[in-house]
Amino acid sequence: MSKMVLIVDDSRMMRLMVRTNLEAAGFEVVEAEDGDDGIEKAANENPDLIILDAVMPRLGGFDALKVLKSDSKTAAIPVIMLTAQSNTTDQIEGWSGGASEYVTKPFNPATLMEIVQKVLGEEEYNLQKKERQIEKLTVLQKLKERTGANGRSEGDGGDR
Q: Mind listing the domains of the chain with CATH numbers?
């Protein structure tokens, strides 16, 4: 029996592209247009994996991720964030919210399929990897906050 993947994205073209690649790899695919629809379909369809965009109407992906991970019916379903939101703060929100992977658009469809296979192929997804990623991104965010546009730390007058 093939595994089912739920694609949650407001872009019809993005859903079509991801669906085409997933079906070519033998997956069954269900689609949702926004976070609310995605939560409902996740609860009713019980997919093996959810691919979730961040910015959508009604309920965005980060809020949908929180709901999915707090509901006992959907909490164990791995989620891959697939979004144009590439800044460090958004990545931290995705990883700390429970995403198994965070992929930014534009993306290579072959790489996405490898990530899908990896996430679905592991019995217990590597929690330590997520924790290390959150740590790295948090450090990077702090460095960015302390570093001005000229590359100097705040308070560094350059006269040392």
A: 4-146 (3.40.50.2300)
